[in-house]
Amino acid sequence: MKYQSQKVAYWFFAAAMLLLSLQIVYGFIMGFAHMGYDGLHSVIPFNTARAVHTNLLVVWLLLGFMGAAYYIIPEEAQQELVNVKLAYIQLISFLLVGVVAIVGYHLNYWEGRKFLEIPRPLDWLVVVNVLTFLGIILATLYKGKKRTTTSMVLAMGLVFAALLYLPGMVWFDNQTMDSFFRWWVVHLWVEGVWELIMGGILAFLLIKLTGVDREVIEKWLYVIVGLTFLSGILGTGHHYYYIGVGKIWLIIGGIFSMMEPLAFLAMALFAVAMYRKGEKRHPNKLALYWTLGTAVLSFVGAGLLGMAHTLPQVNMYTHGTLVTAMHGHLAFWGAYGMIVFSFITFALPNLTGRKLYDTVNGQLAFWLSNIGMLGMTAAFGVAGVAQVYLERKTGLEFGAVQQEIEVHFLVLVLNATMFATGITFYIIEFFRYGRPNNEAIGVEETL
Amino acid sequence: MLSKSQARTFFLGGTIVTFAIFLGLSWNSLSNDVPKQTNLQNLTEQVVRGKHLWESNNCMGCHTIFGEGAYYAPELTKVFERRGEGYIKAALMTQTPWAPRGRKMVAYGFSDAEATDLVAFFKWVGEVDLNGFPPKPDVSR
Ligand code: HEM
Ligand code: HEM
Ligand SMILES: [Fe+2]
Fold it and tell me: Domains of chain A by range and CATH?
């Protein structure tokens, strides 16, 4: 690292690892419940487990993004963070809000809208927190010597993500309106502004890891985020097919969401092309693995598996089934889980001064987690397709179908075990790095 | 070859144009489609109370409605039509977990008034014009 204040990123990453571990525990609870083992029902019913699982996911990803921003912005702007103390306070208060929300979910205290379960009073605390975060980032950029495209795209993604949280905080009496605006948060996040954040982080990593000229990388960054918004904004229509709004969305949503994979394809091609083009190789091999891995798996999970059920003719049958869960897992993992992992893998040696660039644990972490997640995706997929056929095509009753497909959840849990083993290796490596320290300033390898 | 400033123009231009179209279409949907397709005249206070119970208990954490939610328990968009008031109220008011085929639901033990509100909500939900969702099974067994 180059600036002392970048160290704060480490603690965001550590918190993210902790929350990911907890997320996995609740994932297993649900996997077993689907298999018929719901022994925890009276303490942690399925809806509690699910809200905890998905909210922890979003929070650890956001912590990862924030940590990455606290690392990237000083380096790009050539300026220490304007207020490091405030950044620590922001981390701790964010975690506190999260803990309160999760305890609340065990006590039937929530808002009960998928992904937006956080109760309204806590939403306001999130707003204050995120404003603090943005304040630090934007002030640093403003004071800095340079405003690079990479840092601007990243900052823009973060600002828009914050703005788009607001439509989820409006109260509607009409379920259709509720759903309509819920997607302004959920869809426009993952298929819009989060891709800007991902693109910004990816561009930064490629600049550092491949040594390709910044101008070239940043040009393609504009093309990628251009494709994202061009397809993704009107692509929101793929959630408006069957919620009680007009048929125009079948056409608009169908056409534009079919174009959404282009942005992910562009990201994959871009990463591979820059890797080939770069004449030098950064010694941090694991960071390169994760970076190329996220570019490719985001295309598979979000792009291809998203495309598989995005046409209205298909979605009519798959809408709201385990097919959605299949796509949800590989998309979230491949795009956002893995970009956070890429960044952490890149940043840890620079923050701590230890060069665990290519270790056995690190390799095991990469392969086990990714193969495990692909296996989980397959299990959800098989269960989902069987469910769609039996329930939606032949009209077999829901419960009867669920009993038919229980066995696929055994496959899910086995693959999830492989995934969790990979994550365990990753966390072991995380601890082996030790703490960030000032001796690591100015000694990182550069190309 | 494309230059960086052309790439930036593509990004800004595409974003502004598609976002403007999106806002226009959304406005049209909310002011024209929603009143018709969701039968606003039937959206009574009772239905709204039912919606509130639906949310404050996170029913969506197990079930789907309009195809949105979780995949642990049945789709409920057409539950009123499928099961009728008596069955639904029994499931909502029981003190021991309702568990058809062994999969347990939380035993909420709602009062009769609360259960009636939820039934009203389901009835309203079932009447929304969803462009054909959920599909009718078309393969014979
Ligand atoms: C990284 C990007 C993406 C992530 C993280 C993601 C994640 C998700 C999640 C979690 C859901 C379930 C949402 C809910 O029901 O509340 C969902 C639904 C959906 N996604 Fe994605 N997605 C991504 C990209 C895409 C893309 C690029 C496409 C299309 C090409 C797509 C198509 C769909 C469709 C059609 C649904 C609705 C499924 C249904 O009707 O039940 N997604 N996505
Ligand atoms: C041990 C690993 C995991 C297991 C066993 C697991 C299992 C599950 C189960 C059973 C559900 C609920 C499906 C339902 O509603 O019936 C679920 C939901 C979900 N999980 Fe996981 N999960 C795991 C890890 C992950 C990871 C690592 C991610 C993201 C990177 C993730 C993202 C999600 C998302 C986005 C949903 C909501 C999907 C939707 O609504 O369509 N899960 N998970
Ligand atoms: Fe979407």
Answer: 4-436 (1.20.210.10)
What is the ipTM metric for this complex? 0.97
Span from the CA of A422 to the centroid of ligand 2 (angstroms): 17
- Helix/strand/coil percent split, chain A, to 5: 80, 0, 20
Please tell me whether residues B73 and B110 are part of one structural domain. Answer: yes
The residue contributing the CA closest to ligand 2 atom 23 is: A27
Is B138 a member of any domain? no
Note the pLDDT of residue A279: 85
Is the residue at B134 inside a domain? no
Task: Report pLDDT digits (tens) over A289-339.
Answer: 999 999 999 999 999 999 999 999 999 999 999 999 999 999 999 999 999
CATH code of the domain containing B87: 1.10.760.10
Contacts of A284 (CB under 8 A, 6+ apart): A209, A345, A346, A349, A355, A357, A445
Ligand 1 neighbour A306 (Cβ under 6 A) = yes
Q: Which residues of B touch A38 (CB under 8 A)?
A: 103-104
Q: What are the residue ranges in chain A where pLDDT is below 50?
A: none
Pocket test for ligand 1, best of A180, A191, A330, A385 (most atoms within 8 A of CB): A191
Q: What is the pLDDT of residues A351-363, one digit of tens each?
A: 999 999 999 999 9
pTM: 0.98
Task: Name the closest residue on chain B to residue A218, using Cα atoms.
Answer: B4
The count of domains in chain B is: 2
Distances (CA, A) of B132 to B69, B123, B128: 19, 17, 10
